[in-house]
Amino acid sequence: MNFFGHTVLAVKRSADPAFVLGSMLPDFATMIRARPPHTEHAAIDSGMQFHWRTDEVFHRSPAFLALTHQAVVWLSARGVRSGSALAAAHVGVEVLLDAALSDDECAQGAYRAALEGATPSDLGRYLEWASDEQRDRFAALRGRLLARGAITADISPETVAERLRSALAERPRLSLDDTSVQAVRDWARLARPEVSAHAAPLIQEIAARLL
C-alpha cells in the first residue's frame, strides 16, 4: 500500500498529524532510499507500527494479489522482464489505488496536515535519520509532495509510468527501459477501472482485519 492509502486507513484510527505522519514514514523512507527514522515520539512510533501491520494485511489480501498477478501476466506478455514486471505491478497497483481513494476528504486533510507538521521545528525534530543527507532528502521529498498538492484522481498513465521508472531506476534488476515504460503506460490505462472498482471494498476489508 502506498503512503496515501496508509493515510486513508490511519485516519480511521486517529487523525493526529503525528500518527498519520508515522503511518506514511516507512514509505517516505523507501522513497528516499533510507531506513525508517528512529523516533521516541509515541504517536509517530505508533503510526509506523500501524503502517507495518497494515502492509502485512494488505499484501495478503486476495484483491491485491489478484490485481498484481494480472498486471505481471499482462506486462510479461509484452516483453517486460520478470523482475521489472513484478516490481512495476506491485507499485503500480498501489499508485492507482491512491488515485482511486483520492475522494476521501478527511484523509486528504490529514495527509496535508501531517506533511505540514513534519518541519524540523515541529514533528520533524523527533525523527532521527541515519545521516544529515537522509534528513535533507526527506525535507526535499516533503517539499515536493506539498508542492504537488492533494492526491488526484485523474493521474495519467504517463505519470504512473514515470513514477515507476523513477522509483526503480537505481535498482538494475528492476529498472524499466523505454519499451517497458510504454508497456506500463498501456497497462495503467487499461487497469485503472478495475483497480478503482476494488479500492473501497479493499479498504473496508483491511480496516476490519486491523480491528
What does this protein look like?
This protein is mainly alpha-helical and 211 residues long. The chain contains nine helices and no strands. The chain is globular. The two termini are 18 Å apart. The relative contact order is 0.18.
* N-to-C order of helices and strands: HHHHHHHHH
> Roughly what is the average pLDDT, rounded to an integer?
96
Share in helix: over 70%
Number of alpha- plus pi-helical segments: 9
Identify the overall geometry.
globular
Strand content: under 5%
Gap between N and C termini: 18 Å
Strands, count: 0
Radius of gyration: 17 Å
Profile the largest sheet: none
Q: What structural category arises from helix and sheet content?
A: mainly alpha
Low-confidence stretches: none
Give the SSE map:
Blueprint lengths: L2 H8 L6 H15 L10 H17 L3 H16 L4 H19 L4 H12 L15 H17 L8 H12 L9 H32 L2
Helix pairs in contact: 1-2, 1-6, 2-3, 2-6, 4-5, 4-9, 5-8, 5-9, 8-9
